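B., you asked whether I could sanity-check this one before it goes into the benchmark set. Here's the sequence:
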Amino acid sequence: MGGKILKRFVPMVAIDVATKQEAIDLFDKLMVKPQPIVKIGMELYYGLGQVIVKEAKKRGFKVFLDLKLYDIPNTVHRAMAAIGRLGIDFTTIHAAGGSEMLIAGLAGLEEGAKEAGVEPAKLLAITQLTSIDEKILHEQQHVDLSLIESVQSYARLAEKVGLAGVVCSAHEINAEVTGDDFLCVTPGIRPTHAIKDDQKRVVTPAQARIDGSNAIVVGRPITQSFDPVAAYQEVQKAFLNEEEEK
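And here's what the prediction gave me:
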């Protein structure tokens, strides 16, 4: 949501599987250079807890722990302190929780990291899920703003209170409402040959790069591929596009 992109990360691979062994199998397959960032979400973390984060870190992966915290400020502060102690690299919180909750979450994350002697994770605000469209926004959430205006509003709030960035669809990135250092992490990425699944606002890796994503999240097109490494490398090349940018 800013202008010039100062940093672009390798693709984040969503390890959305049901068991520890499935996750470890994917970790081991994805031990390539450069290593992807692995995204551990609710399914794995609620089922296995810290052990799955440790398995990823043991293999040298950077970890995006995507738990989308949303609760009263004190609860979020305490939960984020626990997350901060894990030494992960990215985590998430719902912008809809408001400024007090976001500030409490950021403080907890930094306190937990300090206790553990590790760098604090980059805290990203969830704006609108990529499964949300204008119809759901207006008819079910009863939000008067357009989808892009809602995302813009949440992004401004997140930047104002000191978060590192937001999670948003690539469709909203070009709305230049935040500074150049503010990160835009984009889920809903599908290679041209992949189906949309339950995502409504999707783009290709190449389009996300053109639109200005700092990082993209890709799950099933990689993890359910016959050859996850080849699928990951295809996404990585399309997103980073290093040769064309030299």
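One thing to flag: The first helix runs from residue 20 to 29. Otherwise nothing jumped out at me.
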